[in-house]
Write a structure and sequence with these properties.
single chain; alpha+beta; Alpha-D-Glucose-1,6-Bisphosphate, Chain A, domain 4; 5-stranded antiparallel sheet; 3-stranded antiparallel sheet; DUF3576; DUF3576 domain-containing protein; signal
């Protein structure tokens, strides 16, 4: 084995370990998820310490129920706006909603969505959306942007209704 091959193997192993640490799949599978609300955030464990950097992943290994804080208005607005799509999986701990194929009202093409709410702020940067059409592949960027705008508009409406200006 040459030096280049060894370095590539080490780099690949390190990358796999780093990605594995980000997956969160090692969390306690027997824990009962009880989402709570705290202001604008959907919080799975209000006593969970906030992570500040990458090195914090290697500290406090006893905490198996590490949670991500997501904006509850964006979360609920995503479910409202895309209510015509059947939900395949919802994970408030990671902020991911995966839907199956469904046809929008008045539309002829079926779509599937993956929504990722990654931040507690009511902000466009907190929302990532991937749309795929059945048989057609990825959807045009303008369509994705229009759906994101509809979700963010609905999230703002929900916040106003909640009286938390």
């Amino acid at each position: 084995m040459t030096f280049d091959t060894k370095m590539r193997a080490l780099l690949l192993a390190g990358s796999v370990l780093a990605l594995g640490a980000c997956s969160g799949s090692g969390a306690n599978q027997n824990a009962t998820p009880i989402p709570l609300t705290d202001g604008d955030e959907l919080v799975t464990d209000p006593n969970a310490p906030r992570r500040e950097g990458i090195l914090d992943l290697f500290t406090n290994q006893a905490d198996a129920n590490t949670s991500l804080r997501v904006n509850r208005y964006i979360w609920n607005a995503s479910l409202d706006v895309l209510n015509f799509l059947p939900i395949e999986s919802v994970d408030p701990f990671s902020g991911v909603i995966v839907t199956g194929f469904g046809t929008p009202p008045g539309g002829g093409r079926a779509y599937r969505a993956t929504i990722y709410v990654q931040d507690p702020a009511l902000d466009a940067r907190s929302l990532k959306l991937a749309l795929v059409s059945q048989g057609g592949g990825p959807v045009a960027t303008e369509t994705v942007r229009a759906v994101e705008d509809a979700i963010l508009t609905r999230a703002r409406q929900l916040r106003i209704q909640d009286g938390r200006l």
